[in-house]
Design goal:
Elements lengths: L1 H8 L1 E2 L1 H10 L3 E5 L2 E3 L14 E5 L8 H14 L14 H15 L1 H25 L10 H29 L12 H5 L29 H5 L6 E4 L15 E2 L5 E4 L19 H6 L3 H4 L4 H10 L8 H10 L20
Parallel strand pairs: 5-7
Antiparallel strand pairs: 1-4, 2-3, 2-4, 6-7
Helix pairs in contact: 11-12
Length: about 350
């Protein structure tokens, strides 16, 4: 028990060490920092000596230090410190951006100067190229080609001049422009009222579609001013088609325009159909008998019963015949018409 207390305290005497070495404790011993491997090593020290006991730690094979060194090497390889902060608390990224912006503003004049120099140099090269011409290095010297070129140009100029002189000679004296004939509408507006003799053929209205009024209407036309238009009333159309208006010009310039007529249609006229009552419906024996009543009669009968009224003639007849002996509450849902949305 005394030995265990000494081991727990961590210090042993010479006698306690001899007993502990025989019990094979899992530990090692040192005296003043020197490792004691056997009892002979204690002879090198004078009494009293204090032997320190070091219990061994149970662990694995190690390697944790190597892992730490590997991680440390990875951390040291990066040079991106933008998210770090300096001593004033500002991020390194903002500090570097501010420094680059100041440098950019400082070199703005130099950039503009360099840009202007590049532009002037480009303009100079273009002027030199235009002054030299597209083929300044090419030399062409052919007297025969030059002689033929001048000869062809001279012949072309002479041919053009001869053609122009011939066209002028053949044209002759210019004819005076023909007088334009007046339209009948111009006579209505009073353009021809100043002519008193009436012998000029241009002032007369010559149109195959315009017939002069009979002589019986001359007395009534004298009371109207010249240039008025009379609308003729048409009581009975000659045909169902719409007639075109046919203006009639009289001698004194008045025009009678007949209004086109169209056949009148009775707005209150409704298609003829027979109402299919329940008595008629109960009297038929097949849908084909209902088809003889027509689409409108079947549609009215289906609508009155609240059923769908669309489809062909046979579909309507079959739909109406299927509810012949049924009460409205027993009608199939698929035959009922959709209720209007409120």
């Amino acid at each position: 028990m005394k030995m265990k207390n000494s081991v727990l305290k961590g210090f042993l005497t010479r006698e306690e060490y001899l007993k502990a070495s025989n019990e094979n404790f899992d530990c090692y011993f040192t005296v003043n920092g020197q490792l004691i491997r056997s009892c002979e090593d204690l002879d090198n020290f004078d009494d009293p000596i204090c032997i320190k006991i070091h219990p061994r730690l149970r662990g694995g094979k190690g390697g944790f230090g190597s892992m730490l060194r590997a991680i440390g090497n990875q951390i040291e390889k990066t040079n991106n410190n933008d998210m770090c902060r300096d001593l004033s608390g500002r991020r390194i990224r903002d500090v570097n951006a501010e420094a680059k912006l100041k440098e950019w503003y400082a070199n703005a004049s130099e950039r503009e100067r360099a840009k202007l120099d590049r532009f002037l140099e480009k303009q100079k090269r273009r002027r030199e190229a235009l002054a030299k011409g597209p083929l300044h290095d090419h030399k062409f010297n052919d007297p025969e080609f030059s002689r033929r070129k001048e000869h062809i140009s001279a012949e072309l100029q002479e041919a053009v001049e001869d053609l122009l002189r011939k066209i002028v000679a053949d044209s002759g004296p210019a004819e005076p422009p023909k007088k334009r004939r007046k339209l009948w509408i111009e006579t209505i507006d009073g353009y021809d009222l100043s002519s008193s003799d009436g012998a000029d053929s241009d002032s007369d209205i010559s149109s195959p579609d315009l017939d002069p009024e009979p002589s019986t209407s001359k007395s009534t036309q004298d009371n109207r001013p010249v240039g008025t238009i009379r609308i003729a009333d048409v009581s009975k159309p000659k045909s169902d088609k719409i007639e075109k208006s046919n203006p009639t010009c009289s001698k004194n310039g008045s025009v009678d325009v007949q209004e086109p007529t169209s056949p009148k249609v009775d707005e209150h006229q409704t298609p003829n159909f027979v109402s299919i009552t329940d008595k008629i419906l109960n009297g038929v024996s097949s849908p084909s008998e209902l088809e003889s009543y027509g689409l409108e009669s079947l549609k009215q009968a289906l609508s009155s019963k609240g059923l769908k009224c669309g489809g062909t003639l046979s579909e309507r007849a079959s739909r109406l015949f299927s509810v012949r002996d049924l009460d409205p509450a027993d009608y199939p849902v698929k035959l009922l018409a959709a209720k209007p949305k409120k």
